[in-house]
Write a structure and sequence with these properties.
two-stranded antiparallel ribbon; globular; mainly alpha; about 5% strand
């Protein structure tokens, strides 16, 4: 029984790592551009890892995403702002690790009593963790560069970033809150 559990764990971990890599490499798979915004879907894979495998493996999957973003900022930036901010692991790696930690811990708290709500809350909290931390770190560590990039006055940077949280972060959180239970529940049933 222990070998079967370890095999399941390693298999799911490997598949999720592969999905993270594909989402970062294949255009429109990890980042969906829409008029005026870009919806990130990669965080959903990190959240699923966190709820199915636990916060530690969720952090690992998030860290892999962060390292890929960090490397891409040097060799193939996804935007003109990426080489300025995502070359700093505090912005590119740390928030992605914390997605897994936050989502995993929230689901752990609700797993026995309200698993579906736990999956939904883990999805929403994981998505918001990424959005708020990345934009907050950009706003606090790179305020002058970000203001120039977004073409706003420095005094208007935080309101502008909060608008991005509302236009990108909330749809991403809603999407994660819907998809985390839809993907997580079958995987959790199979795990048992």
């Amino acid at each position: 029984m222990l070998r079967r559990t370890n095999a399941y764990h390693i298999s799911v971990l490997a598949v999720l790592i592969a999905i993270i890599i594909v989402q970062n490499v294949v255009p429109f798979f990890g980042y969906i551009p829409l008029p005026g915004l870009s919806i990130t879907t990669i965080h959903i894979t990190v959240i699923v890892a966190a709820v199915v495998l636990g916060p530690k493996d969720g952090a690992l999957i998030g860290g892999i995403w962060g390292v890929i973003d960090w490397v891409r900022a040097f060799i193939a930036p996804t935007s003109p702002l990426a080489p300025l901010v995502f070359t700093n692991p505090l912005v590119s790696v740390l928030p992605r690790i914390l997605i897994g930690v936050v989502a995993g811990l929230i689901f752990k708290k609700f797993r026995e009593t309200h698993p579906t709500w736990g999956l939904t809350l883990a999805g929403v909290a994981g998505a918001l963790t990424n959005t708020v931390l990345v934009l907050g770190l950009i706003g606090s560590l790179y305020s002058h560069q970000a203001a120039g990039f977004y073409q706003v006055d420095l005094s208007q940077l935080m309101p502008y970033l909060l608008t991005i949280v509302a236009t990108n972060g909330i749809p991403e959180a809603i999407l994660a809150g819907i998809l985390a239970p839809l993907i997580g529940r079958p995987l959790l049933k199979f795990k048992r």
